[in-house]
Amino acid sequence: MFEVTPESMGTGKRGEVASDAGLQPINPLTVKVACSNCNLRELCMPMGLKADELDRIQEVVAVRRKVKRGGRLYSNGEKFSSLFAIRTGFFKTCITTEDGRNQVTGFQMAGEIIGLDGIVREHHTCDAIALEDAEVCVMPFDRIEELSREVVSLQRHVHKIMSREIVREHGVMLLLGSMRAEERLAAFLLNLVQRLHARGFSQSELLLRMTREEIGSYLGLKLETVSRTFSKFVEDKIMEVKQRHVRILDTEALKLIVNNNHKPY
Amino acid sequence: MFEVTPESMGTGKRGEVASDAGLQPINPLTVKVACSNCNLRELCMPMGLKADELDRIQEVVAVRRKVKRGGRLYSNGEKFSSLFAIRTGFFKTCITTEDGRNQVTGFQMAGEIIGLDGIVREHHTCDAIALEDAEVCVMPFDRIEELSREVVSLQRHVHKIMSREIVREHGVMLLLGSMRAEERLAAFLLNLVQRLHARGFSQSELLLRMTREEIGSYLGLKLETVSRTFSKFVEDKIMEVKQRHVRILDTEALKLIVNNNHKPY
DNA sequence: CGACACCTTGAAGAGGTTCAAGAAATGTGG
DNA sequence: CCACATTTCTTGAACCTCTTCAAGGTGTCG
Questions:
Q1: Residue A206, strand partner residues
Q2: B120, A163: Cβ pair inside 8 Å?
Q3: CATH number of the domain that B196 lies in?
Q4: How do residues B164-223 score in pLDDT, each as one tens digit?
Q5: Global pTM value
Q6: Backbone torsion region of residue B96, taken as left when φ is above 0, otherwise alpha when ψ lies between -120 and 50, otherwise beta
């Protein structure tokens, strides 16, 4: 299978990913690369490729690019040209309106594809901000389109990635539209550990890369509510929370909160 | 340009769309068709096609299918095989979880494409229910994929449709995550009239095809709150409301509610 | 060490929900 | 075509969840 080193995600300390940053001239930094030996291949590429197809598909990855913590991979209004596969690091995407509204639309981690919002208007409609030092594979979209006309499995893969994002957002709508604060936070944490676990991390322990405010924005709650809800979970012995370090003690209880506990009758 | 007859949408009485239903043997009904003389072409097809491309693209529309009010175009868990272009009628899509949660994820009208959620798992993950008698063009997805490998403008179009859906859902997340009841309903109504207007209907008058409960589900509110908010808008002379018939008197006021009015400082 | 960002907690208040009752519209069957 | 059943909508009152405002604590970085 594949491994993601704990240093690069999940429990590592912030900032240590960019250990080779000194080799690079400027930020954003760019590096030539190949997918064939990337340990995230199974997350961001179609499966069961023939050797020659894999060769062709790596052509879409033009370069890699590093983004420092707090830096932007792209911004609202910016010309769209590429999708990005996250190699290391952690991002948030968010929309900000002129009148000051702000909504985090997602948190993305290694192996996930980011930038799909830009396709329709050929300009990005949200901001992608690194929550820790990150590195992405830059995949120019016209090359993706070109190649997916020839490699059927890539075409299918692109369609699935977009459909997956649509389905994910349906889930967020369900969360925002029908859940109470505890349910939202429980669902959020379960989703996070599940995705981290799929990357080789603990099922019970995680390091939040985002602030309470960012969690709140994503969940449609105020940061104080997020904080209080964490405290309640601690009180109920469902988890231990020390700042951004969370250890889940009772996964079942969390699942119950998300599933059964929504309407007592 | 194109026209959609008022009888088929927007202000017509329910049920009169299926005037030729008697000609059809069973329900769901199916009819052979062509896009070239469809007045919705500019909504659901790529623009600026050459004649031969148009010819090819109509091949994707296998048949049409009628869905009666209350009927399902597809259901959660059902095998995915086709996307659907709505010709007439009005749909809602919604997810229902085992534990009884329910979330309307969207309302779709003529010219819009429905079914994208099914691609990723090859099974649908939500229900599409007709809110009035409807007719759709059935577009088998493997034929779409096949053809979009050959017709670049179709490929691009498919990508844009999926990206558009992602961006739309970002907007819903903003609504659900950061707006108060009045703001949500105002945004919802503005969105509806804007889409109806793009189809040749009034900018100020609309007939809601959905119940207060369905609106509430979409907006993350209870039906009583929706009803009360309508009443408040009437009181404030922003609109007239008679059951499902809405006449907007002050569009600017609605826009102000959505934009400026969210945080007084 | 001090400045700054982030987190926690309390108390008061607002917005939305819940429960309940009744009115209006719609659909159905005789 | 009318009466009745059903669904949908409206409105009130009490309640509850989450927000707001405020203060203080914790952790981090230069």
A1: A246
A2: yes
A3: 1.10.10.10
A4: 999 999 999 999 999 999 999 999 999 999 999 999 999 999 999 999 999 999 999 999
A5: 0.87
A6: beta
